[in-house]
Known about the structure:
Elements: E1 2-9, E2 12-25, E3 36-48, E4 51-55, E5 71-73, H1 75-81, E6 91-93, H2 99-102, E7 106-109, E8 113-116, E9 122-126, H3 127-135, H4 143-156, E10 159-162, E11 167-169, E12 172-176, E13 185-189, E14 195-197, H5 206-209, H6 221-238, E15 241-243, E16 251-255, E17 261-265
Parallel strand pairs: 4-6, 6-9, 9-10, 14-15
Antiparallel strand pairs: 1-2, 2-3, 2-5, 3-4, 7-8, 11-12, 12-13, 13-14, 16-17
Amino acid sequence: MSATTLEPTGGWKIALLRFGQARHPGEWVGPGFPEWMWTPMNGLLLQCPGTTILVDTGSGVLSHLWAYEGIESDVPRALAAAGVAPSDVGVVLLTHLDDDHIGGLLAGRWPDEVAVVFADARIVAPRAAVRAVERGEGLPVGTEERRRLLSLLRDAGVLDELEPNDTVAPGVRLRDAPGHRAGHACVEVAGERPLVHLADALHHVAHVEHPEWDGPADDDRALALGTRVALLAELAETGARAVASHLAEPFTVTRRADGAFEAHVLDR
């Protein structure tokens, strides 16, 4: 668990948090990868005077839903690496409601001894994502766990549902990024060096050059591919920095003469 400080923008201090990692088949990434791979689970920490926003929370108490042996996730340790305690967080912004993004909202032992970690924070989620979970759509595993987590948040009076393009805080807004999961959203941080958190719009740096390789985890592969290509084209045009939930480093994107996209890992 670690915290990597990025150059601030728009008055926001930024850190890429590594909550943990998960083991999975290499074929999920694309052809020619090892049989098994480890992929990071990341979140984003945004701080300005009076406001601390945490984007996503890793798998936490829902780690048991992972299909393969090998997963670790610890939000408090990642926050501590950035000098922040859970009680400092005023807003938790969820890009979507997959277990590896929401499980860290709870602490304790699943299923009967859990409590909301960020009980004093506003928990923000895309409304379409909440509705999809309530209807049982999306991932076939963990439906009841996700429903129960939402119920715990509602009982605590902390859940706040937003629409695409809603502003979370000055300069920070949700952006619709459909295809991966219902309600899936990116997070845009405006400023001198804007940053886009792509969430699960792509899952490996190889998917910048080969966006067509991604998709095994997407509900609608064609729609997700269109979203991925559009986001990459935007990043190539604007030069904005990007991070993603399962990429280890921040990066920028350019377009080569042959039309392919290329990732450039940033030195922070």
